[in-house]
Design brief:
- The structure is a single chain.
- With 257 residues, this protein is of the alpha/beta class.
- It contains seven helices and eight strands, in the order αβαββαββαβαβαβα.
- The longest helix is centred in the last third of the chain and has 29 residues.
- It is globular.
Amino acid sequence: MKTKYEIAKNWLPRYTGTPIDDFGDYLLLTNFHYYVEEFANKFNTEVKGVGRPMQTATNSSGLTIVNFGIGSANAATIMDILVARQPKGVLFLGKCGGLKRSTELGHFILPTAAIRGEGTSNDYIAPEVPALPSFKLHKFVSTSLVNRNLEYRTGVIYTTNRRLWEWDDNFKSYLQKIGAIGIDMETATLFIVGYVNQIPRGALLLVSDIPMFPEGVKTEESDKKVNEQFVNLHLELGIEAMTDIGHKGEEIKHFTY
């Protein structure tokens, strides 16, 4: 196996327990197994890859959801091995910490860009290249939000490899200075590796905690409440947007890279 495609063709089924031909043209990505379970229950379909690093489920319309795990290294891995399938569009349904007072628990953020603080993306392309979503994909997501009369935010996400930083006042001061609206561990990596691999991509992030304040730091109890109140809606928005793209067949990939 000498080429990226040859390796990815072997690794995508190995990581997911899912044959390449079983993946749909459009994908939802998530960090959590319960998103995949909820999707499978909604469409009465099988969860594949249980016991593997990643799990998938695909509905009868050809929309696939993948749980790739947490962190930028895993985000890069899924966007690399998807070269074997070359999906027409990928939407990340992620969670993030809200960094501004205008972001509250349960708010949705449609990122306009992501700051590459994770370092992983530097292995793919020069650090001055911005991490951007595919605009036309985000157009469909914003339409789903507006049609449901849901309030949402746009802005820049800071992506970091640090999972435990809430105690670090110097880092928090830095986050305030750069003006990011939210923080996560995957978005910038997904955008950059998607760009390098010519995969149209986007992200719809759910604000799951307000980590700039001690009382807003995520706990098991607070995360459970967010899941109960907002995860189903988060998933429904992703399904609706990507299904709409599939039905309309609109090209969302750039003509040139």
